[in-house]
């Protein structure tokens, strides 16, 4: 998307090889998964901490309470995954497409996202505190109360998505394009919008929050 004065995000370019169906019983800590297709797998409560997924496709998988902290997901597609309380703390997602996800309470603080496309679906209470996002696109999705506290966002775009009750406290934004957001609601950290670009209409919508942040009384 980009625009004058804003560097657009680089999207992932995925070309998955012919995949082999995953026949294993479940995830393993520090497991190494390469060129595999996980279809309708139930990983609820399983421990895949530190695992590496390379050239993989996870389709319709259940991730309730799955532990994937410090996991590395590279050159992979996650489609229709769903889960509550998934642990992605300090995980790395690079060249990843996440489509039509239904996630709630995902813990991804300290995670690194680079060349990631999040398209469609709904993600509630996503914790990205102190995370690093570079070349990330949120497209056509709903984000309810995402927490970007202390995170660093560079070349991040919001396209036709709803951003509800976002927390930007202490965040650092560089070339963040919010103009395409279908709705933009910032609960905290509106003062951190330096480095972002918004539309005139969004500025008007945010005016009351900005006035409150600056201590301006608006009367009459």
UniProtKB/TrEMBL annotation:
Pfam families: Pentapeptide (PF00805), Pentapeptide_4 (PF13599). Transmembrane segments: none annotated. It comes from the Bacteria. This is Pentapeptide repeat protein.
């Amino acid at each position: 998307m980009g625009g004058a004065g804003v560097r657009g995000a680089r999207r992932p370019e995925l070309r998955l090889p012919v995949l082999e169906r995953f026949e294993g019983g479940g995830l393993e800590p520090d497991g190494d998964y390469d060129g595999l297709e996980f279809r309708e797998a139930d990983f609820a409560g399983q421990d895949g901490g530190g695992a590496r997924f390379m050239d993989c496709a996870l389709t319709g998988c259940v991730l309730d309470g799955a532990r994937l902290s410090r996991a590395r997901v590279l050159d992979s597609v996650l489609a229709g995954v769903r889960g509550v309380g998934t642990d992605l703390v300090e995980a790395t997602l690079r060249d990843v497409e996440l489509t039509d996800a239904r996630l709630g309470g995902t813990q991804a603080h300290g995670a690194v996202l680079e060349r990631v496309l999040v398209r469609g679906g709904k993600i509630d209470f996503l914790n990205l505190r102190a995370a690093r996002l570079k070349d990330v696109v949120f497209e056509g999705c709903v984000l309810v109360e995402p927490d970007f506290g202390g995170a660093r966002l560079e070349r991040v775009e919001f396209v036709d998505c709803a951003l509800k009750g976002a927390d930007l406290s202490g965040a650092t934004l560089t070339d963040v394009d919010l103009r395409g957001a279908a709705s933009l609601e910032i609960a905290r950290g509106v003062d951190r919008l330096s480095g972002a670009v918004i539309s005139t209409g969004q500025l008007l919508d945010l005016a009351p929050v900005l006035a409150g942040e600056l201590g301006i009384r608006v009367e009459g």
